[in-house]
Amino acid sequence: MDAGGPVGDLSMDSKRTMNNDATSRRVAEKTAVVVGAGGNIGSHLVPHLGRMAELHRVILIDPDVYEAKNVRSQDITPSAVGKRKVCIQARTLRRINPRLHVETVQKEIQDVPLGRLEADVILACLDSREARRDVNQKAFRLGSPWIDAGVEPGGLLARVNVYKPAPDAPCLECAWHDEDYALLEQRYACGGKASSPAPTNAPSSIGALAASLQAIECQKLLTGQFERLAVGQQILIDASHHKHYVTKLVRNGHCRFDHETWCILRHEVPSPDITVGEALGLLGNPVPEEGSPALWVEGQAFVVAVACALCGWRRRVLRLQRRLRELRCAKCGGRMVPIGFEMVERLATMSERIQHRTLRSLGLRAGDVFSIGTPLGRVRHYEIDCDT
Ligand SMILES: [Zn+2]
Ligand SMILES: [Zn+2]
After folding, report:
1. pLDDT tens digit string along 36-67?
2. pTM score
């Protein structure tokens, strides 16, 4: 099976620094993103990445801090307890390969700007359905292959799924049924942000098995062994019964996800402090003669009002839902929380109020991708490309 060439090489070259002997090596210089880098699978995967000669840059994403109970199931020592997972894993990587460029992001995947995930491969080591869905969507938007690893500790099952974005290729959600979506909605129903998933308590060995399967497919991808790569397949090892299954994943014509890969334009701005009006101006009238364009950020709504959790006092705001700062009530000092039904998906950019708002004040920052669409349905996607 031809998995095609690595995606995103050209755009990433501009980010790379050249040095004297870089020219011959650049062909092999690749970036990997690890989502859930510090957990039961991720902590076992990271050392493998440090030993892959093809990798030049690794971005580690994990919001958590190590707890004492993690020592039993993850590849860490007691000295890691109380420390950030991404920092511990970055140190491991640098010890194994001091030449590797290692970046850390201590955030949930839903909070990471899309542009920061641009990579030759995205490796997901997650135990949350919501987070997996987010990785799936973002990988397709970027056109990045992604490898999902998972375990089912009770049955001693370890598996990996390999996805390569294309309109006719299977995605994570292709295998989802109504019940899977119902489980997502139940979680969101108990209060906006998804509650953290129950710990899997998987044995260290089963996490290590899944991580090894993931590392093997990752290495094939990075070295161009596409005919051996399990693209569009699931590899599962049932360690209880010593069985090994390879299943072809199927593109579901009724999949709820649109499978679109975006052409994302780099939008160089001096800083996120420019206004929406100025940003649109810099784009050189991106959507002429088609009425008022709308601006949105996929996967996040804008909160338009918050209310005090204690006394109910309300005030207007306008900010991306997941970038809302801690606000206190002016009347009683209580915590201000978003009002669920007072959110909007899209902003009308021609409105005077919106035109004068800075991108930063709306919660946008470097690496975020915003979309501009017209009433006639034309859509363009821009990444905020600035240093601050
Ligand atoms: Zn799908
Ligand atoms: Zn109050």
Report:
1. 999 999 999 999 999 999 999 999 999 999 99
2. 0.86
Residues with Cβ within 5 Å of ion ligand 2? 308, 310-311, 313, 329, 331-332, 334
Residue 302 token pair: 């804008």
Task: Tell how far the Cα of 183 is from the centroid of ligand 1, in angstroms.
Answer: 18
Ligand nearest to the CA of residue 137, numbered in listed order: 1
Q: How far is the CA of 260 from the centre of ligand 1 (A)?
A: 10
Cα separation, 30 vs 28, whole angstroms? 6
Strand partners, 295: 347, 372
Q: End-to-end CA distance of the chain: give it in Å, rounded.
A: 42
Q: Which of 308, 150, 127 is nearest to 234 (CA)?
A: 150
> Does the structure show a pLDDT above 90 at 287?
no
pLDDT confidence of 184, banded at 50, 70, 90?
confident
Tell how far the Cα of 151 is from the centroid of ligand 1, in angstroms: 22
Ligand at minimal distance from the CA of 313 is 2
The 8-class DSSP code of residue 300 comes to B
Choice among 59-73, 201-215, 289-303, 318-332 with the minimum mean pLDDT: 289-303
Look at residue 325 in the predicted model and tell me its pLDDT. 85
Compute, in angstroms, the gap from residue 327 CA to the centroid of ligand 1.
38
Cα(224) to centroid(ligand 1), Å: 25
